Amino acid sequence: MRRIGVWMTMAIVLVCCNQIADDDLPLKVDEERLGLKALVVTGDAVYVTPSGDATGVTDADNIETALLYVSQTGGMVCLTDGDKSTVDHYYTSRNIVVPGFQGTLCGEGKYNSIIHAGRQSAEIGFEGATSEWWSLTGGNPFLATVLQFDNAVGDVVLNNFTILIEDEQPTDIMPDYYGNPSTYISTFIEILGGEHDTYIENVCLRGLQTNAFGNIAGMNVSWGIHVMLGSPVTDINESGKLFVKNVEAENLGDAACLFMRFAPGSLISIDKLQAINVGQGITGMNVLNSQATVRNTHVKIHSAGLPGMFFFNIPSGLHVFDNTIETPRYWGIFLHNLVNNAGIEDNTFMNLNQNLCFGGILVLGQNNFIHHNDFKNSSLSGWSIDAGAIYLSSSSSGNMIHEMKFPQLLTLKLCEMIMDMTDNGETPGYDGANEIHNYVACENANRRDLMLNAKQMISAAALWQME
Questions:
Q1: What does pTM read for this prediction?
Q2: Contact 192/150 with Cβ under 8 angstroms?
Q3: Do the strands 96-99 and 145-152 form a parallel or antiparallel pair, or are they unpaired?
Q4: In a domain, 72, yes or no
Q5: DSSP for 114-156?
Q6: What is the CA radius of gyration of the chain?
Q7: What does the alpha-carbon distance between residue 307 and residue 451 come to, in Å, rounded to a whole number?
Q8: Counting Cβ atoms within 10 Å, is residue 211 exposed (0-12), middle (13-18) or buried (19+)?
Q9: Which helix (H) or strand (E) element contains residue 84?
Q10: What's the CA gap between 336 and 137, in Å, rounded?
């Protein structure tokens, strides 16, 4: 245990805990209070120093116990050794599980406090735990998750740390949610149930690309951040706020950020997310009459991935702008038929021809405003050859396509970048159910095979969500 004099400097050096004034709280060692080493308690704050135990047992116990303690008052857990100039390494070989949480978990800085999650030893893998939330569903509730918060009762604040998963097979062979044998870790950060506000900022989540047995899409971890309110067996009736900012996510089998089940009046903001070599950048589902904004993100999809962004059942309030999407699979942005009144603006699409990509933006919904998106570096060749920029399905209507930026190809016509399936191919001229600014229609009558293929593309791209 460091001397008391070292701990007295913490309030000065901790950027993550700047709510505490420098001389407000006399720090004191109170190991009996928590029953573990390497913990310092002051008021409703607990400081956790690295134990140096690379098996992941001691640090996991310390962090979990500290989180359980502060959740009684909504206090904070700070990962620090008191010296901001050093990098602190923590190890966990099991789920850190906190039911009914409220409070803050913070480190000294995004790259100064590192949690290593992985095997306890060559013989003993990362240990999963039962989730109260998942136990109400039909799948396997015993999952391997690094930070697991079930049924939070107040604000959840996570900032200024990194989680690394570097083992090729972090877990022993165990069934995933669907019962398939797996060795990957399910999720970095999972916050499920309850009605609460979540703030995640300055966090780095990094998995490992590996083809070892039991991994998912060539990665040793599936999801990055997963936030879902309420109960899976009731209607969507819990509202809350979700703010994700300055987050890096790398090497994931599925989405970097997944948010679901937000009742009317919620507020969601995803800002400055770097999602590199991931299965999907953003997935948003079942957000009812709320504001959901995705902006300033950079998404790069790996070859086994999915659409860059997927949105389902968001009837209003979705705004996606100033994002960059590279190498998506299937579609760049997929707006399902229950996504209406959304704004998709000023997004840049790059290298859409590298993976199995059917097109830039797929629209199945109504009254969406698609404006100023940039396809100049998308490498798209047009629907008559391969793939185009925007596909408006036969179920779409009332969508406004306005002032796109398309590749400058001598043989490319504007109509080859936009396909509107509501246009009646038997009627001369454009008579579709969507409004397209500066659009000169190519008659669909000569492209019936292409239309059929496109319908099959939609079905194939949506299959993953129906599993």
A1: 0.89
A2: yes
A3: parallel
A4: no
A5: EEEE--SSSSS--B-EE-TTGGGSSS--EE-EEEEEEEE-S-E
A6: 24
A7: 20
A8: exposed
A9: none
A10: 24
The answer to whether 203 and 247 have CB atoms below 8 angstroms apart is yes
CA distances from 363 to 153, 234, 297, 311 (A): 37, 29, 21, 10
Return the amino acid letter for 413. K
Complete DSSP assignment for 265-284: T-EEEEEEEEEEEESEEEEE
| Tens-level pLDDT at each residue, the chain (467 residues) | 333 333 333 332 333 444 333 333 323 334 444 444 567 887 889 999 999 999 999 999 999 999 999 998 999 999 999 888 999 999 999 999 999 999 999 999 999 999 999 999 999 999 999 998 999 998 999 999 999 999 999 999 999 999 999 999 999 999 999 999 999 999 999 999 999 999 999 999 999 999 999 999 999 999 999 999 999 999 999 999 999 999 999 999 999 999 999 999 999 999 999 999 999 999 999 999 999 999 999 999 999 999 999 999 999 999 999 999 999 999 999 999 899 999 999 999 999 988 888 899 999 999 999 999 999 999 988 877 778 899 999 899 999 999 888 877 645 566 678 888 898 777 777 788 999 886 554 544 344 445 545 555 555 555 444 34
Domain interval for residue 89: 57-63+80-360+373-385+402-412+452-466
Domain annotation covers residue 303: yes
Using alpha carbons, select from 61, 56, 30, 60 the residue that is nearest to residue 45.
Answer: 30
Give the C-alpha distances (Å, rounded to integers) separating 54 from 37, 57, 112, 160, 320.
Answer: 15, 8, 17, 21, 42
Task: Answer left, alpha or beta for residue 58, where phi above 0 means left and psi between -120 and 50 means alpha.
Answer: alpha
Q: Give the total number of structural domains in the chain.
A: 1
Please, what is the end-to-end C-alpha distance for the chain in angstroms? 50
β-pair partners for 271: 245, 295
Inter-CA distances, 129 with 69, 105, 193, 252, 404, Å = 20, 20, 16, 21, 48
Establish if 166 belongs to a structural domain: yes
**Does residue 45 sit within a domain?**
no
Which token pair is 379?
């490498």
d(CA 450, CA 380): 16
HSE at residue 361, side-chain half, CA atoms within 13 A, is: 33
Label the pairing between strands 142-143 and 129-130.
Answer: antiparallel
Distance CA 178, CA 365 (A): 30
